[in-house]
Structures are given as C-alpha cells and as structure tokens.
Write a structure and sequence with these properties.
The structure is a homodimer. The first copy, chain A, is α/β, with parallel strands linked by helices. Chain A has a single domain (3-17, 27-202), classed as Dihydrofolate Reductase, subunit A. The first copy, chain A, has helices spanning 31-34, 41-46, 56-67, 75-85, 121-132, 143-151, and strands at residues 3-10, 14-16, 68-73, 94-98, 106-107, 113-117, 136-141, 157-163, 165-166, 171-172, 182-191, 196-202. In chain A, strand 5 and strand 6 form a beta hairpin.
C-alpha cells in the first residue's frame, strides 16, 4: 500500500497562486501550473471529454489514475470541484473528504463515492487504505491537506510535475511548521516538452 | 554570450541552511546540498586533489567549468572562499567580486584573477562579459548575488542540481521582491543517482 501525492508545481516552488478562495481555488497567476493538463487525452477522458493529446504526459496521468484505489481530499477542494465534477466524477474510486461537518456519503456514477470524515487526517487515511484494495491512496489536495500529510510523514511517494514557469508568489508546497529535514530517494524523472515529472520516495 | 547560474538546491527549494555567516556560509543543515560534489573527479581536480569519481555528475561539473570564461561573485562568497582557494583557485578565469570596498586586483596562479567591483552588479557583469571571450559568464553566488541578478533579468540559463533531500528551513533561491512571474524553457534534464540536474533558459 503506497500513499501518493501528485502536484503540479512551478520551478519556484508554488502549487497555487495568490488569493486562494473557493471561487478561485488555483489563486491568481496559477494558470501555468495547470494548462499542460487540459489537453491530455487521459485527463479529458476522465472528465467525459473526447480527443486530446496521446503523449507521454497523458500516459503519466493515466498511470496515476489507474494506480489510485482511493482518494483523500480537503473540504475546499471538494467544495470547489463538486459542481464541475457532476454526476460522474473523474475519480472512479472512493473519495474521503476531510471536513468538520458530518454529511451522508454520496454515491456517484462510475465508482466514485464521497465519504465525509470528521475525525481527522489519520482516520481518513485509514479508511482510504481499507477502501483502496491493492492500489494506492492518493492525497489529492488541496495544498494544505497535502502539507498536513507531508508534515505527519504519511506520504510515501511524491510526484512533482515541474512546469517551466516562475509564479513569483503564491502558496508553496514546502512551507510551514510541518516540513523538516528529510532524506528522499529519487524514483524516476520524465522530461517532456510540457513539464519535468519528478517522482520521489520518502525514506522512513 | 550566455550568463549562467548553477546552484545546488534541495527538493524543497533551499540553496543554503539557516544562520548563514562568513564562518558558516552554507548555513546549518545544508550538508545534503553539497556532499554529492566532493567526490567528483572534475571538482577535485580543480581543487588540486587527485582521485574521485568519473561519472555523469563529474562530466556536468567539468562541462560547467570549461564553459565558464568569467565569474561574478558576492563579497561574502569571496571572503569565505579566499583562504580555502589558496594560491591556485579553482576558477582559472577572471573573477569579479561585488564589494563596497575598493581593493587592488589580485593575480593568482592558473589564470584566476580577482577584480573588486564597487559600482554595482551591472558594472560587474559588463566587465565579466568583456573578459569572458566566447565563453559564458557564471554568476557563482552566493544566494543573494544570484537573486539580485535573477531579479534584474540578467541570467540567461539557470542550472539547478536538485538533491534528494528536504532541508525544512534555510535560504530559498526563489524568494524576495526580485522574483516575479516569468516563463522559462526547459533546456535539459539529467538524472543521476546523486541528483537531478535541471537546466532552464529564461524567455526574454
């Protein structure tokens, strides 16, 4: 059982822009982080769209979708995505949403369920592991959720999609009291025209 | 004429540890940034040492040495290196040191000269370009010197040697008022067991 996180990040270390809100979850100036994704065939297929590019980036995205057996996300990511994802969300797996407000589980089409977890990040991870079968648990975001799991040493593999841009300001992945000195192992580097995909494993 | 900068950086974006002083220029906790360098044959040769590993990392280091026709560095880097470099410093090229205190040029063995520039970073770069011939000018450091040149848009190519470690704290390369949104082009990625070497070109 591998716990993964998979983030688009700028060369200067930002995973979102400035002024992140529910209405603007990427923040201002964050477009370069995500534009490489929108035309990938594998991403489009998960959104119910046709077409798109069948390239190495699309393969990596498909590999990540296929490897993921359950997902953990923060409340803000859920709130911002809920409407966009619609009746057939892209996850096709059980999703555990961290929240302070209990709510019945939602069963969507295609295998996605949203279970609302009110007793903390360890509990959500425990439940996601139980649901993932032989596949990975992915900590999908947002930034502060990934930071919490990183800070607790609960992530095994981190894949960073380094986009060739500086944002200059925004929300950093590696910031705050949770991050301390740690060795990691390089797992894989894939360079494409769109991004450099770096995968690391945390040394326990 | 290409202006380069070449920095070892942790996965979490630090190029030095905490508490950087002349007596401890790397700062506390920065050892993982530099330990991959010390056994490279090309680095050792420039320090007047024998032996070391002839590997891809050593090739990259030699490529960088060979491509550099002149060097710009900050006063603190000079002060911390002066004694260690001795009579035959590793640069083997004209070095321009940013300082507020005029001082006669020092001529060392092996082609290294140290010229002390008191009228700012543009002047130092101008003089270095004139001295570099057909080769590159490298902005060698320290961190704040590289940040100043980055902030003024004066660096053409940035090579980051990403070491597989989190420092958790320290001095970030990308921080401060000088860094803003900018597109960059991926030039090259080289993965070795010791580090992932990312080279980018700034889009003017």
């Amino acid at each position: 059982m591998t716990v993964t996180a998979d983030m688009a990040i700028s060369l200067d270390g930002f995973i979102a822009g400035t002024g992140v809100t529910v209405d603007n979850p990427g923040g201002h100036g964050a477009e370069p982080l995500f534009e490489w994704i929108h035309n990938l065939a594998s991403w489009r297929e998960r959104q119910g769209l046709t077409g798109g590019a069948e390239n190495r980036d699309s393969e990596l995205m498909r590999e990540w979708f296929d490897a993921t057996g359950a997902v953990v996300m923060g409340r803000m990511m859920y709130d911002t995505g809920e409407e966009f994802w619609g009746d057939n969300p892209p996850f096709r797996a059980p999703v555990f949403v961290l929240t302070h407000h209990p709510r019945p589980t939602l069963v969507k089409q295609g295998g996605t369920t949203f279970t609302f977890v009110t007793d903390g990040i360890h509990s959500a991870l425990h439940r996601a592991k139980a649901a993932a079968g032989q596949r990975n648990v992915d900590i999908a975001g947002g930034a502060s959720t990934v930071q919490q799991y990183l800070g607790e040493g609960l992530i095994d593999e981190l894949q960073l999609h380094v986009v060739p841009a500086l944002l200059g300001a925004g929300l950093r992945l590696f910031e705050g009291p949770g991050t301390g000195p740690q060795r990691v192992e390089q797992v894989r580097v894939v360079e494409t025209p769109l991004a450099t995909h770096l995968k690391y494993r945390f040394v326990k």
